[in-house]
Design brief:
Mean pLDDT: 89
Low-confidence stretches: none
Radius of gyration: 15 Å
Number of strands: 2
Structural class: alpha+beta
Strand order of the largest sheet: 1-2
Order of helices and strands: HEHHHE
Distance between the termini: 25 Å
């Protein structure tokens, strides 16, 4: 996530895959993956990822906002190189 523009600009003919899922189900899955003290949601919360600053990610709304902005960013970066990359979007709950 943090090096998206470098990856898109530096790797020709790459295929990028975006997965989609119901945000409530995704948040629940992140919260239940791992131990209660160190589940995946808490790891995201501590990671200081681009668009998800440290301490943010305690609820579905914050994660949903983060992921929606991430999707926009990926689409925008890939679109800078028309014909050079492929973007595949998949709803994993379909």
């Amino acid at each position: 996530v943090n090096y998206l523009n470098e990856i898109v600009g530096g790797i020709p003919n790459a295929t990028f895959i975006l997965t989609f899922r119901n945000m409530t189900n995704w948040f629940r899955s992140l919260t239940n993956w791992g131990t209660p003290e160190n589940n995946m949601r808490k790891r995201f919360e501590r990671a200081n990822i681009t668009g998800l600053p440290e301490g943010v990610g305690k609820n579905v709304s914050q994660f949903s906002s983060f992921y929606c902005e991430y999707v926009k960013r990926v689409r925008k970066e890939v679109a800078k190189y028309p014909g050079r990359h492929e973007l595949i979007e998949i709803d994993i709950e379909d």
